Amino acid sequence: MPPRSRRRARVHDPVKTAAALRAQADAVLTAVRGLDAGAYGLPTRLGGWTVRDLVVHFCLETEALPRVLGEEPPAGPAGLTLVAWAGATGPLAARLDEETRAAASATADPLARLEDAVRALHAALADGTVPDRTVRVMPGVMTAPDFAVTRLVELVAHADDLAAATGADVPLERRALASVTRLLADALAEKAPGNSVELRVPPFAAVQCVAGPRHTRGTPPNVVETDPVTWLRLATGRTTWDGALDAAEVSASGERADLSQYLPVLA
Question: Of 90, 169, 180, 209, whose CB is crowded by the most CB atoms within 10 A?
Fold first, then answer.
């Protein structure tokens, strides 16, 4: 069973989520349309995946929301929260890798499949919001609006991977990046509960985390601050803590302001 959340769950506006998801999917599709044939064979930073594998993974992640919305709602309430989903992704990594490689082998035209997937996503969100219902996904049952936020995580993180692999301009849509930043910050606070460190990711998120001596008021004595893209890369394992510090992409003050043992929060 996924771990239960110890914090009040953040609510993500389903109208904003739908708009962000459509916009980020469109940005990815535009970037993929701009790739030449040779780019599909380039390596990525994702454990041996090529760009072709990555594009097919975009297809799988974009197809997922329309697919589950087309199924009968599962019986019973949603038992999987967003932060629990973040904690459940690690054990599923090998299965997702296998599914992606199998799909890449079976997909004759990744671009055509991605175009179909994005059209289906737009159709599923044609009302301008994410339907208020439950869906069954790989780790369990969750609300459709929460599952849509997980699709933002996938599209934003992998859009950054695509840009790194190809040099293509793959914009990270502001609303999408905001939602992802907040979820990953909440996931850190869930993984390392406490109030001795404040993580700041302006302008989108600030959370307190890490057990330690209690402070009675104001800001904790330990503060970590970074930008949203660096936080995305740290939280998903694309960048190391030491590497981000060396590159001056993170500032950390206080004797407990070392988050390396809690990273990545999403593998």
Answer: 180
Percent of the chain with pLDDT over 70: 94
The answer on pLDDT for 215 being more than 90 is: no
Identify which of 43, 36, 85, 236 has the alpha carbon closest to the alpha carbon of residue 155. Answer: 236
> With the CA atoms of 16, 234, 47 and 93 taken in that order, what torsion angle do they form, in degrees rounded to the nearest 10?
-60
Beta bridge pairs of residue 226: 250
CA distances from 84 to 46, 67, 89, 96, 116 (A): 23, 22, 9, 18, 30
- Please give the structure tokens belonging to residue 131: 């339907």
Q: List 225's β-bridge partners, or say none.
A: 200, 251
Indicate the pTM of the whole model. 0.93
* Separation in Å, CA 186 to CA 51, 73, 174: 30, 27, 18
